Amino acid sequence: MTREAALSVEEAGRLLGISPATVWRRIRSGEIESIRRGGRRLVPKAALDHATIASDEGIRAMDRSHPIFRLVGAGRSGGGSPGARDKHAILGRR
């Protein structure tokens, strides 16, 4: 395998759209194949074809309509609304 056929953990993360820490977690769990070369951990480009991209995992992209944005500061509202007591109603859980 040539150097071009393998990527660093950081490069693999950029291509997959995930953090290097997540790449390391997936390597340890066996989800992403890796090799050691010269004391470095490398990810074969072919292994990326089988790796799932973050958007394929069913994680919804956050935008300003997400309920979490209405919670920001709810714990320190100074008595105003929404307050900490309103958090379950805001998130749609009662």
What Rg, in angstroms, do the CA atoms define?
20 Å
The DSSP helix count reads: 5
Strand count, sense and barrel status of the largest sheet are: 3 strands, antiparallel
Low-pLDDT stretches are none
Structure description:
The chain has a domain at 3-57. The protein has 5 helices and 3 strands, in the order E-H-H-E-E-H-H-H. The chain has helices at residues 9-16, 20-29, 45-48, 68-71, 87-91, and strands at 6-8, 35-37, 40-44. It has a 3-stranded antiparallel β-sheet with strand order 1-3-2. The relative contact order is 0.13.
Summary keywords:
94 residues, alpha+beta, three-stranded antiparallel beta sheet, 5 helices, 12% strand, elongated
Q: Topology of this protein?
A:
Elements: E1 6-8, H1 9-16, H2 20-29, E2 35-37, E3 40-44, H3 45-48, H4 68-71, H5 87-91
Antiparallel strand pairs: 1-3, 2-3
Short synopsis of the structure:
This protein is an alpha+beta fold and 94 residues long. 33% of the residues lie in helices and 12% in strands. The protein has a domain at 3-57.
